[in-house]
Write a structure and sequence with these properties.
By secondary structure, the protein is α+β, with helices and mostly antiparallel strands. About 20% of the residues lie in helices and about 40% in strands. The chain is built from 9 helices and 28 strands. The strands form 4 sheets. Strands 1, 2, 3, 4, 5, 6, 7, 8, 9 and 10 form a 10-stranded antiparallel sheet that branches. The protein has an 8-stranded antiparallel sheet with strand order 14-13-12-11-15-16-17-18. β21 and β22 form a beta hairpin.
């Protein structure tokens, strides 16, 4: 296929009679041809020359040059090959100077110009070959190369470095490659390719790894990514700007490379700096596990018509502290069924959140429910967490302890359903005066008592309060209650409410001995 249209015969030029045999068409994208054309054309204008742009097709080279005698003027010069009579006649037509009517977005002409000797026209063939290889079109060929300074519109129209825009086309696809002044490929636009149209990063790990490699080239192994979303055909993420690390920006990574967008939410100039522990790098993740991880999520949730709704990677926070890096795969069917599966960076399942209709309700009044809360506390706060209060209330639990960020402050954390939720937490400091070290208790001190004491004491409390049909509302472990002095013993307070709305409570020590009662 020839990527040239019918070129009208020019009225001026040199006509070369080539005899009766058909001629092989010139291609300026072959080795040395573009430089030969430029050398011939350069005889028409003064040197050194300042250039507005250069256009190259397989059969032509056109250059717009500033007139040194009248710097506000630009003239166009062109060398064009044409063929006629069934390719038996070959014309080389040279024209110019032809006045150019300027229409510049950046109306400062000098800022648009560049020196001709900055551009590696001799390297056109190598650049064209590289563009064909990088774009990988089916039956693709180079249609044109346009060379000028890059134009930026925000915040105002300004010109950047010299940029080659290389158009690659086939009968079925198209793409654009960009190169620097020396002809080195800098970026691609593959949106018009079948490869981009059919891209599925959920399943095509080779393409995903290629995009991740481009991210690594941009960010290195530095932990600068805050959160990432994997989509079918691109990765969207918020990360520190490699050039201005104090600035948090939004990025997109796809087949075209890594593209920087706008300031991320609350990430612009003057925004509070997030701690380093909140960030991760591309090398913290085993990306080869992604396709299998997504299959596992579907299998774990068993949602009949479920589709991938969101795939995210981030470090959740709890009280402002970064938690371990986790993938979260959210699957929904559009009819109300949804669930989530969490994975660690190596693709190992860490948590499954089934659809609501299939979840086993957590009952913290039962030994198994209480055990889950204890596991959650150890996982989140450590095996020997120091607490002021641990309270169970049906499907929820609450702990009160020192704020790790502000040890002088006392705050609460809520365990809801199956995990500790991240919310600001209420300041409990005013309710606890004269706190001493013995005001706190170690989680180990109560863990052993839970399995046998919870069912037994709840029933005894109902009997003591004479509320056999009453409902246990809350079970609280503490050594110092709000607005009270610390007790030498850990007490278990069981609050019960009757059908008539009246309530009372009974407290015991860890050995199950009665301590106090408040009747309805």
């Amino acid at each position: 296929m020839r990527l040239v249209g019918v070129i009208p015969a020019l009225l001026t030029g040199v006509v070369l009679l080539a005899g009766c045999s058909k001629q092989k068409w010139v291609n300026l994208f072959e080795e040395g041809k573009a430089q030969e054309a430029l050398t011939e054309l350069s005889k028409k204008f003064s040197q050194p020359a300042k250039i507005l742009n250069v256009d190259i097709t397989p059969l032509s080279l056109t250059i717009q040059v500033q007139d040194p005698a009248q710097p506000s003027h630009v003239d166009e010069y062109s060398l064009e090959h044409s063929y006629s009579f069934d390719d038996r006649y070959h014309d080389v037509n040279i024209s110019g100077p032809k006045p150019v009517q300027l229409s510049l977005i950046n109306d400062n002409l000098e800022e648009n110009l560049f020196n001709l000797n900055e551009v590696n026209i001799a390297g056109v063939a190598a650049t064209a070959k590289s563009a064909l290889e990088r774009t990988a079109l089916e039956g693709g060929g180079i249609a044109s190369i346009h060379i000028q300074r890059r134009l930026f519109l925000i915040p105002v129209a300004t010109c950047g470095d010299v940029d080659w825009e290389i158009s690659v086309k086939s009968d079925r696809e198209y793409a654009t490659a960009h190169a620097d002044a020396k002809g080195r490929i800098t970026r691609l636009n593959l949106d018009g390719t079948n490869r981009a149209k059919n891209l599925n990063l959920y399943a095509d790990n080779k393409e995903l790894l290629g995009i991740v490699a481009a991210m690594r080239e941009t960010f290195g192994s530095t932990r600068g990514i805050l959160k990432l979303h994997l989509n079918r055909n691109f990765l969207g993420f918020d990360a520190r700007d490699p050039q201005k690390p104090k600035r948090l920006m939004s990025f997109t990574a796809n087949l075209n490379g890594v593209l920087m967008g706008m300031d991320a939410f609350n990430g612009g100039p003057g925004a509070p700096q997030l701690p380093d522990e909140r960030f991760f790098s591309v090398d913290d993740v085993d990306w080869s596990r992604v396709p299998e991880m997504l299959k596992q999520a579907q299998a774990k949730l068993e949602i009949a018509k479920g589709r991938l709704y969101a795939v995210s990677l981030t470090k959740a926070t709890l009280g402002g502290d970064a938690q371990p890096l986790r993938w979260t795969v959210d699957i929904r069917d559009g009819e109300g069924e949804d669930g989530e599966v969490e994975f660690d960076p190596q693709g190992v399942v860490t948590h499954v959140k089934l659809p609501k209709g299939r979840r086993v309700p957590v009952n913290t009044f039962e030994p198994e429910g209480a055990r889950q809360v204890i596991v959650g506390i150890k996982k989140t706060f450590g095996s020997h967490a120091k607490l002021i209060e641990l309270a169970f209330s049906g499907s929820r639990a609450q702990i009160i302890a020192r704020d790790p960020k502000q040890p002088a402050k006392i705050r609460d954390w809520i365990y809801d359903d199956d995990h500790f939720t991240d919310f600001q937490g209420s300041d409990q400091t005013p309710f606890y005066r004269d706190l001493q070290e013995y005001s706190f208790f170690d989680l180990d001190e109560v863990e052993a008592a839970l399995p046998h004491l919870l069912p037994k004491l709840a029933k005894v409390a109902q009997e003591r309060l004479k509320m056999p049909d009453g409902k246990v509302e809350r079970i609280t472990f503490c050594r110092q209650q709000k607005m009270q002095l610390p007790s030498p013993k850990i007490t278990i307070q069981i609050n019960v409410q009757g059908a008539d709305g009246k309530s009372g409570w009974v407290s015991y020590d860890l050995q199950g001995n009665f301590v106090h009662v408040m009747t309805p």
